[in-house]
Amino acid sequence: MPEALAGLSTVRALDHHDDRRRMNQIRAASYLHVFDLFETCLADAARAHAVRDVDARDTLVPLLRLDSFDHTELFRTFQSAFQQSFPVVPKLAERPADLDEILRDAVPLSLLIVALHLKLVTQQHYLACVRGDESLEPSFVRVLKEHWAMECGRTRSPSSALAIQQALGAALPGRVPAALRDYRRIMFTTDDVLRRQSELDVETLEATRGARLSAADRSSVVDAQFAAFRKTFITYGIVNAAFVYAMRSLGPTAPAMLAGVVSALSSR
To answer: pTM for this one?
Structure first.
């Protein structure tokens, strides 16, 4: 996994034995697992909204195609191969009930915002962090390349980032405040999921070592994992230029709200 996503180079607690390489491998597996969780939860929530509300169905058209987030097989094939070759079974977060609940209760427009966030994150991860790096595991690069192609490569697809941007641009102004509020709540819940997975990643590392880290070392590794996860899944999306541009189409309060999310998360 590239250092831009892994964020492990400065963690001195990983200087011993083969810990840094193992942690990088663990992080690659959990990265795909977390992406799968987020996309699955979002897709299921969009379908549930569409079933119970005709207006929601109209809003969520870009997310209701079967291929909108159809990456489960792509991710899980890699995860299966990883588990067969790794010395222990990685500990992965269960489907987050708290995220399911908040997506279920969120207004439909906020789901479009989250979907655009995830699609642009996918693009940035591959184009800025992975493409052209020959030091990376080829199978991991292939998965991220295919994920990027599915999400952003077919610009004319009805489920593309462009289609979502157009739908956001057509949103009724009266629906925007609630959508921004719920997007913020979803990001905070996402942050909680990332914290839980960070702790599980360190448990997996300890299992590969056959020994626990010291309390101080464990804390530093968890903190580094969590910071990297937050940057990878939340910050990269919020500061993405295309995302900021799309948010401006929702009105003058949106950019300030984005800055507020980043600031609030950093103080947690």
So the answer is: 0.89
